[in-house]
Amino acid sequence: MNLAPNFPEDPVMQRLLQLLHEEIGLPKHKTLRWDTQILENLS
């Protein structure tokens, strides 16, 4: 996964990214930034 240059790489954020990838399968080529929105249909 590509992270924006200013995206925090602390252990909490790394765990969040891991959980998101496991739950919704974030694409490896997607760049995550602070303004990236992740939407999931919960119905």
Strand content: 5-15%
| Uncertain runs | none
Number of helices: 1
What topology, given as strand order, has the largest sheet? 1-2
Instruction: Count the domains.
Output: 1
The termini sit apart by: 27 Å
- Helicity range: 25-40%
Shape estimate? globular
Structural class: alpha+beta
Overall residue-averaged pLDDT value: 69
Radius of gyration, in Å, reads: 11 Å
Major beta sheet summary:
2 strands, parallel
Number of strands: 2
Compressed to H and E, one letter per element, the order equals EHE
Question: What's a concise summary of this model?
Answer:
This protein has 43 residues and is of the alpha+beta class. It is 33% helix and 9% strand. The protein is globular, with a radius of gyration of 11 Å.
What keywords describe this structure?
43 residues, two-stranded parallel sheet, 1 helix, 33% helix
